[in-house]
Amino acid sequence: MSQTLEADIATIAQISAVPTILEAVSEMTGLGFVCIARVTADSWHSCAVLDKLNFGLKVGAALDITTTLCEEVRDNNAAIIIDSVSDSDQYRDHHTPRMYGFQSYFSIPLYRPSGEYFGTLCGLDPAKAQLTEKTTRNTLMLFAELISRQLASEVVLVETQAALTDEMKTAKMREQFIAMLGHDIRTPLSTLMNGTEILRHHAPPSLKPLLDTMSRSSQRIATLVDEVTDFTRGRMGGGISLNLRHENQLEVPLQQAIAELRSVHPQREIIAELPAGLALLCDASRLVQLLSNLLNNAIVHGDPSAPVYVNVQQSNGIFELAVTNSGSAIPEGVQAQLFKPFWRANQAEARQGLGLGLFIASEIAISHGGVLEVVSSDSATTFTYRSYGAEFVERRTLIR
C-alpha cells in the first residue's frame, strides 16, 4: 500500500461528509451497520463506522479478510448487493453470512485518486431489505462514487498542505539566511566606508569625485542592507524592534535627516515645519528612518519642479508627521498595495530600490503603536504618521 492504515483512517476522518453519508445509507436501506473499510489482499480494517446493531467493530478494527465478502469484491472489482441471503442461491450456504449473522448486505468498491483499489462502502443487517431495487442500488453506487471523489480531494489537499509547509520552512530559512548575510556584510562594508573617509582627508583633489562616488555607493549598500535586515527581522520576530526613550528634542534628529536628504538631492526643495521642544516616548532613530523613507519616496515619485513639504505637529497627546509632494493622484487600488513589501507600481521603479521603504515605514509606525496613512488627490499626495501618546506606546510595549 502506498499509505499506512493510520494515514488512510485519518484521510477518511477528514472527509466531513462521511458521517452524513453513513447515516443516509442506514436511513435509506434500514441497515443497522454501515462502514467504510480499507481492504488489501490480506487485510480488512474499518475506517469509519455507523453501528446501530452493537456489532462491535470500532474504527481501526480488523477482520480476517477470508471471512468477508469484501475479498470477493476486491478480487472481482465488482459490487455485491444482497436483499436476502436465505433467498439467494449464490450466498445461501456461504460461510460469511452464517459467521456474521446477516440477511441483507452490500459491498461497493472505493478507489484512490490513482485508480488503485482502496476498499469498500459496505453494510449489513440481520433482517431482509430491498437493496437491489434500482433507485436504492443507484443511490448506493452514487454514495460510493462520492466517497471515492472525496478521497481524491483529500489527497490533493494533503499534498498541497505538505507543499505549503515545505515552502514556509524554505521561506523561513531564506529569511534567516538573509538576516545573517546582512549582519556579515556590515563589517567589511564599515571597513570600506571608514577607509573612504580616511582617504578623503589625504587624497589629492583630483580623487575627490571618485571618493564621493565611492562614499555614496557604500551608503547605498548600507541602506539596502538595513532595509533587508529590517524586513527579515519584522517577518521573523513579529515586528521591528524598538529602543524606546523619552526624547525631549525630537526635532533635532528629524532636522538632521532632512539636511542629509537636502545634501543628497540638492536640486530638490524641501520645506520643513518642525516646532521646537518635541517631546515623545519613541525610538528616535526609527522615526528618523521613517521620515527618511517617506522623504525618499516623495522625492522619487513627486513632481521634481515642486517642493516637498514636511510638517510635524503635536497636541493633546497626538504626534503627527506628514510628508507631502505634488504630482498625479495615486489610484485607490494602488494605495492599497503601497505598504506591502517588494511592491512597485511598475518595473521602471526597480532602479529606485527594493520596494521596502514604505513597508518598513509602516512597520515602524505599527511598532510605535501608531498608523501610517496616505491621502492622494490630483494636486498632492500626503503620507501621515500618527501616534497617540506615551502611555499607549508603553502599554503596547509591555504587552509585546
Reconstruct the topology from this structure.
Elements: H1 5-14, H2 18-29, E1 33-39, E2 44-51, E3 62-63, H3 70-76, E4 80-82, H4 95-100, E5 104-111, E6 117-125, H5 134-202, H6 208-237, E7 245-247, H7 251-264, E8 270-273, E9 280-282, H8 284-301, E10 308-315, E11 318-326, H9 332-335, H10 357-367, E12 371-376, E13 380-387, H11 390-399
Parallel strand pairs: 8-10
Antiparallel strand pairs: 1-2, 1-6, 2-3, 4-5, 5-6, 7-9, 10-11, 11-13, 12-13
Helix pairs in contact: 2-5, 5-6, 6-10, 7-8, 8-10
Short account of what is shown:
The chain is of the alpha+beta class and 400 residues long. Helices cover 48% and strands 20% of the residues.
Notable traits:
six-stranded antiparallel sheet; 400 residues; EC 2.7.13.3; GAF-like_dom_sf; Helix Hairpins; Beta-Lactamase; elongated; five-stranded mixed sheet; Heat Shock Protein 90; alpha+beta
